[in-house]
Write a structure and sequence with these properties.
single chain; mainly alpha
Length: 91
């Protein structure tokens, strides 16, 4: 997933310690659904992120193409399935 974000010129891992955490997943899902406005994407991050809103906006400013959104959607659905399976197995 990191390689895909790099190709999109999105530097999310610089400001989010866990891409699959709550804020990371909200941002990734929004990107996959077509949101490209970095300011709107930054609003999806919560206050626990160790960066300013300006830093987050800078990290989320990139070049997202339709092909990227499709690959990101596929990766996000795969991650969601893996997380759900893991949560089910620990219950």
């Amino acid at each position: 997933m990191e390689c895909l974000l790099e190709e999109m010129r999105i530097k999310l891992s610089i400001v989010v310690s866990n891409l699959l955490g709550a804020s990371g997943l909200r941002i990734l899902h929004a990107l996959a659904q077509g949101e490209t406005d970095a300011k709107k994407l930054a609003e999806l991050g919560d206050e626990r992120l160790h960066c300013t809103e300006e830093q987050l906006v800078d990290a989320l400013t990139g070049r997202v193409q339709p092909m990227h959104r499709g690959l990101l959607a596929y990766n996000c659905s795969d991650c969601s399935c893996s997380i759900s399976k893991w949560l089910s197995s620990t219950s």
